[in-house]
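Practice record 12: protein with fe (ii) ion.
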Amino acid sequence: MSATTYLNMDYIDKLKISEDGKNIIRNYDILVKKNLNRNLYLHSVNTLKYASMLSEKHNVDLKDHLRICIASILHDYGKSLDIDKQRKIVIKNIKEVKIKSGDMEIDALFHGFSGSFILREELSISDKKIIEAVRYHTTGKLNMNMVDKIVYISDKIEDDRQYEDIDYLREISLKNINLCLLEVYKNNIIYIIKRNKRFYSQTFNIWNNICRLYGGFLNGPGR
Ligand SMILES: [Fe+2]
Ligand SMILES: [Fe+2]
């Protein structure tokens, strides 16, 4: 999205969701624009646009399509708070998240978890699929449903993202969402290793789960 369209909500008119759904997205657009910085706002809108396109491509039903739009525009809303406040929210709700003591040192983990509690407590969103798609958009989770998969993938390959292999990931996102999930998750693991960053404690289990379910495809780029 270019700077000239920063304040333009025309993209919402083009979504293939109900008029009520469009009004919900308009309100969240205003909220995100107000509370996140410009780049994060643009990334949130781009994630929604990519996720909506994938929802259409993969014939997602209207209810899940709206859930995907809501979760996408709000997926980074946890970043409206600084990292200490995010951490406090996670600690307050620790019984609901799979987190071990070592995970508490990985700052990047907190905004998805904390964001899901902000959605529930401040925005009164109770829909489990929306809450979980936001909660696990950074880490993934075991047995992801279509809402989880599309939000997870769209966050990583929306139109403004640029990195090696992204053209391949975008190409397969249109054809095979499960293969795409496997390749995007793999890409994320490689990214973490290359930068000597630490893994979330559940990453090994989530990767094994994705491999068991979708690892039968052998037509990847050969990594
Ligand atoms: Fe995020
Ligand atoms: Fe994001």
